[in-house]
Structure formats: structure tokens, C-alpha cells
Amino acid sequence: MSIDYVAFRRELEAFARKSCPAEIRAVVAAGQKITKREYKAWQMILAAKGWGAPSWPREAGGTGWDIKQRLIFEEVMAENDCPPLYHHGLGHIGPVIIRFGTPEQKARFLPRILDGSDWWCQGYSEPGSGSDLASLSTSARLDGDEWVINGQKTWTSHAHEASMIYMLVRTSKEAKKQDGISLILVPMDSPGITVRPIRTIDGWHHLNEVFFDEVRVRADNLIGEVGKGWTCAKFLLERERLPPANVARLELVRRQVARLVEDAGKAAAGRRDFSGLHHKLLMCEADVKGARVMMAQATDDLIHQRPLGVQPSAIKMTCADVAQRLTSIALDAVGPEAANRFLAETDDGSADVPAATWIQNYMFTRSRTIAGGTSEVQRNVVANELLGA
């Protein structure tokens, strides 16, 4: 049966306008930090509609939408200032459980991701293992029907508000380093877990270091085979850089910055020339459209189980670059007089909130070319693939 994509878009638009609470849309439209409060409230609304997991198959509780429907969904939600879907559960560990989990694990974990009952974070990087993730040392030993975990994870986004962490652990030192790694799911309220914040220049709390001291977790929380977690990790990392929400988020930021430039131009009343910023915005818009085309092709390849090649790296680099350029435009729009203002430093209510927010956005996006694999590493991946180096 053919799909009426025009009618589908109209249905989405009507739903977004009617169902996304005004207070949530205001946070998104202003470019403010989207917290668990906004993400979870919106996820519960989507789940009640049956749209909680646009990229999951129907048998796992998803929509079963095709790639065009999924891209339309992301576009419409961004156009209406709805929050992007929270990636750790829906885009990362959810698909891993669907692919590698047992029926019992799917029944335990997937419904709680869909309705927002569980909130996830990722335990991959360690103080000595970033780009060389296979060198990780956090260990897990089997003791009866429990795994006992010791070690440390760092740069862990949202660990301070997560209820679950999916993490890579070393279960063997005898095999080559990739073969001794396993993937395990751990409740964050387990005894022996300590979370400490990592303060960043943007003034927002999103990164943490997490310590594990004799943390016990049931043995059947291990996903896939013991020592084969690297296979799960590669599967996840490919999808980490591919969710359509990545490009939709870019479009959302582009629209936010365009509004900011327009409002700043009106406020300046001819005292400043904004034509250069408008030109930069047009160039960013073109790159966002290009990223959307790359995303559609890569997702289609995933669906049809074709090799992805360097597409995840190319998309990741493009999204990081455009995000930084957009927030640089926003910083130019708010002007030099606001450049030293931060919300955290102006609790007396005297802050120019829109200006301070975009300064924080600018600072935050400096990390986009580092987090999830540095741009230097991604360029090496592309060069090796294309040039055979």
C-alpha cells in the first residue's frame, strides 16, 4: 500500500502544534538547554500516541515507519520547536538490545525506554581510553550469578540524572584487547557507584566522571556473548552518528539562529550591518540540506544491510562543523557587549537571557568536534577508506 506522505506530514504538524506543551516549546525555541524534564515529558506524550520510537520495528514497540516518514517526522518536530528524541535510550542502547538482546532482555528493557521510565547514559570513555576505546580497563568479574565491576568512566553525559548506564567492561585480559570486552547494563542506584560532575566552559552541567567500586549487577544484564562486546560497540557507534535527529537538531538550531539574527537586526535599527550574517546563514542552510541527503542515504543503507563505509564519519564531521558555525553566527548577532555574560553569573535577574543563552551554546558546541570521536580521527577514517592509506 502506497503512503500518502503529504497527509502524513499534515498529521504530524497537527499533533506537534496540539500536543507539545507550550512551556517545552518555549525552552527549545529560545535555544536553552533541554533537560531530562523536557525530554521525558515529550517522550511520554509520544509513547502514548504510539510514536515513541520512530526508528524501531513494530515488533519491538516502534512505529515501523520507512526512512522518508522518519525524516519527515524529524523535520516537522524541529519546525515546531519540539525537543529532539533523547538519543541514549532510543538511538543507542535500544537498537543494540533489539539486535543482540535475548527475548527476556527485550521484554525487560525496551518498554521502559519507550515510555521514559528508564533514563540512560553511556559508559565508554575512561581517563586513559578515549579515541583508543579498546584499551579500556574497567573490569567485570563473574561471581556466582552476578558481575562485580571496578573502575572509572569519564565524560559521561547525563550520568547525574540517569537511572541506567550501558557500559563496556573488560571481562578478560587473555585475548586480544577487543575480544576481552563485554557490554553490560547497570542500574545507577547500585551500591558502589559514585558520580562527580565535570565542569565545562559553557556553565551547563552535562558531563560527569563515574566510579565503580565492587558494584554488583545480575549476570543476565550482559548483552550478547561474554567477550564480544566490541561487536555491540561497533554496531552502536555506527548508529550514534546516524540518527536523523542529529540533522533535525541542526535544522532546529539553524532556525533558532535565524530568528535571533532577525530580531537583533531589528533591535539594532541600522546601527549594525547584518548582511554578512544572513549570507553565512544561507551557507549553513545549504550544508544542513546536504547533511539531510547524506543521512537519508546512510539510513537506507542500514535498512538494506549495505556497508556504511565512511558515511557515519562524514555525517558526524558535517554536523559538528555546521553546529559550530551556527553558534558563531549567534555570538556575532548578540554582539560584543554580551560576550562576557553567563546565566550562572547573573542570578540577580539583570542578565540578557537570550544573549547569555547563545554564549553558552557557543561554548557548548566547541566540544562537538571532540565528543563521539574527534574530527581528526574521522578525517583519518575517511582518508584511509578513500585513499587506501
UniProtKB/TrEMBL annotation:
Q: Which SUPFAM superfamilies does the UniProt entry name for this protein?
A: Acyl-CoA dehydrogenase C-terminal domain-like (SSF47203), Acyl-CoA dehydrogenase NM domain-like (SSF56645)
* Residues in Acyl-CoA oxidase/dehydrogenase middle domain copies: 121-215
Entry-linked InterPro entries: Acyl-CoA_Oxase/DH_mid-dom, Acyl-CoA_Oxase/DH_mid-dom_sf, AcylCo_DH-like_C, AcylCo_DH/oxidase_C, AcylCoA_DH/ox_N, AcylCoA_DH/ox_N_sf, AcylCoA_DH/oxidase_NM_dom_sf, Mycobact_Acyl-CoA_DH
Which top-rank group of organisms is this from? Bacteria
User: Which Pfam families would you find in this protein's record?
Assistant: Acyl-CoA_dh_1, Acyl-CoA_dh_M, Acyl-CoA_dh_N
Q: Which residue numbers delimit the Acyl-CoA dehydrogenase/oxidase N-terminal domain?
A: 7-116
Ordered alphabetically, the record's keywords are: FAD, Flavoprotein, Oxidoreductase
Where the record annotates domain Acyl-CoA dehydrogenase/oxidase C-terminal, the positions are 227-386
- Cofactor(s) annotated in UniProt: FAD
Q: Does the keyword Oxidoreductase apply?
A: yes
Give the similarity note: Belongs to the acyl-CoA dehydrogenase family.
Recorded protein name is Acyl-CoA dehydrogenase family protein
